């Protein structure tokens, strides 16, 4: 196995050796009679180079075509076109006092998040420039050292983001959205950093291992990472802490009935205990096949939400599972990884390629910046998927009033701004806004006037 | 005193990176997982080795090499996690690759009776090893604060940790049939741990520190600079 630099060196040596071979012994004859064969050789090489360029362009266009075709397939939704009414006035659904309070609450969190992102980028830029110095802290080989540099990059980012995280906790506590303590919040985020370390180590071990084998490592890395993401999604239920099976009889009955309606009978529902950290309600769907689950936070079942509202949540999460949103998410990830890994390979060439540990800080910067650039697009996809799940819920529950009241209660319990400013919507909203969701409910009701 | 077939050599300069010290427990996670995976294989290899040693009277050389590498890697990871050494270790337990290294002598003939009853014989040593393990942990916790504050590990703490690790390594080596010599826990235990004095301008002066003044250790370091006198070579 040879490192990219070794390959580079080898090629350089080979090209520098060629003229010497031509010079030795045959120089006089080449001057007299060799000009025609040499010109022929140049023409042959030029033709070969041209053919290679054409093949490269064709392959590139084919890849782009495949990419667009795959994106088109993944974009397909069961939500009909025009399922939103014209913009509604939020003051018809929420008091002016709530609208002002939620806007102020969200504004602080948005600005805090923005500053945190700026800190992230600044830290990574500095780390990309100077991080390679930390190689001295490693006695491991190139891949082990790369893993260390990857982890240290995330460690420094964590340190830089701690103040913003604590500011968010302070703000949430002040508005009674969270009652998590500062120390508890720090310990939790520190522990979560352990998972990030493990993830980045594993990802770098694979990517660097491939990069040390071939310069086109990214072509192999994309399907490999997509397969691993699929495996992770399949096993994710086992990584969610503090869960227990749903025991509330009425909710269990509703879950079974809705699962049958949505075509995924026998889907299990579990409850995650989070009430000691937060009052915010939430739910999620995880896994596929035998590990398919709906997870309800216990804050959804503490009495603030009535049966019809919990049914709407169940319908939404089951909608995600019924429409294979988890697998689609992995598909979108693969589509993102194609340009992202190719660009990482391109940008790290100056440091000898990703196979070398000194390229890792730069690779981290490139990856995070690409993620930030792609964030608005990711949010568009995410909102599209969430809208489909909302529509699936309405079709399963046939309860627009319950769904509408759910969205109103969700907004009031999380102090969510029903209609955030455009910049915040573009950068942060991975769900439709509360008003968009209410608009969809009204649209569904117009299409099904009997309900 | 005869040298134990399993002993430690340290070539640590006591410098500690505050950044890696702060995150040390998390940075060790990939190693801990890899070590765990490796240990599953070791269980199988140890059983095969036990049968082979019962028949032939010594551990076959390939099995000995494999288990010695495992034990060396285990000690590298413990040294890193418990702040007894500074750099991030490699993943293969290669000899000479880490400032705190485990030296394991080659396969020796062993008494078949002690091989047969090895798991029973190791129990007393395992109990002492557990006590040493707690000692090393306490040293690591105190050392964490000291290293964060000063950027250095106090030499006494580093040496205490190394001595604890040495006993742990000898016990594990005895259990894995890497040696027939029983772990040594005597009062002059430092003799089995070669503590090579740190060099350079930041070397702390410790005239009363017996291990670092050990002439054998110094001579060993200077006579074999390739292994112990220079920065470890990455595998």
Index terms:
heterodimer, A: 451 residues, mainly alpha, 14 helices, disordered N terminus, B: 235 residues, 9 helices, disordered C terminus
Describe, in short, the structure shown.
The complex is a heterodimer of chains A (451) and B (235). With 451 residues, chain A is mainly alpha-helical.
Multimeric organization? heterodimer
Question: What summary fits the major beta sheet of chain A?
Answer: 4 strands, mixed
- Poorly predicted parts of chain A: 1-32
Query: Which outline of chain B best applies?
Result: elongated
Number of helices of chain A: 14
**Tally of DSSP helical segments of chain B:** 9
- The mean pLDDT of chain B is 81
Strand tally of chain A, please?
4
What's the Cα radius of gyration of chain A?
Answer: 28 Å
User: Strand order within the widest sheet of chain B?
Assistant: 2-1-3
The main sheet of chain A orders its strands as: 1-2-4-3
